[in-house]
Amino acid sequence: MQVGVNYPWVNYGWDFGTPPPGWRSGSDPDWMARIDGDLAHFKRIGISVVRWFILGDGLTYGTDSDAPQFDRGTGRWSFSPPDLGKELLGHFETLLQKFHAGNTTAPPVLLMPVFVDFKFCEPGVPALGATLADSGFIKQGRAQAINDSTMQSDFL
Questions:
Q1: Paired residues of 73 in beta bridges
Q2: Residue 73, CB half-sphere, CA atoms under 13 Å: how many?
């Protein structure tokens, strides 16, 4: 029987990409320093699949002028899927490399990347300590990426 686990994301919503200023002590996400040990531990205890939410609530996907915008006229959130940032893609590439390097012996620990979770589509919320007027970082508010047929292909 295969046994899997939801990886307890180290920094929910900002494990990949650039988080708001002051949220990270260095340039690398916190998981980078611990993933090798965690993968070895998973292998020792028989975990064969790790599920990891890559974008989570969307905090680092579309920031500043690409962040979701609240339209006071309609009372809805507006969001157009931007290209993935170089930093986010670099972090994901590092994750893939870590899984590859950690699987030189059998049995492998497989990665099941999950794009988003349900919070991605909930109404937007400014990142901690910010207001709608001054935040380039909005959590959630990205439902259009999924439910608008003209934007789905850009997102996927």
A1: none
A2: 1
Number of domains in the chain: 1
Q: pLDDT tens digits for 132-154? A: 555 689 999 999 999 999 999 88
Query: Would the pLDDT of 78 be above 60?
Result: yes
Q: What is the full DSSP assignment across 37-54?
A: HHHHHHHHHT--EEEEEE
2 touches 42 (CB < 8 A): no
Q: Which residue has the tokens 């994901």?
A: 92
Structural domain including 39 reads 4-155
In 16-121, the DSSP E strands lie at: 49-56, 69-71, 76-78, 110-116
Q: What is the pLDDT of residues 90-124, one digit of tens each?
A: 999 999 999 999 999 888 999 999 999 999 999 99
What gap in Å lies between CA 128 and CA 46, rounded to an integer? 37
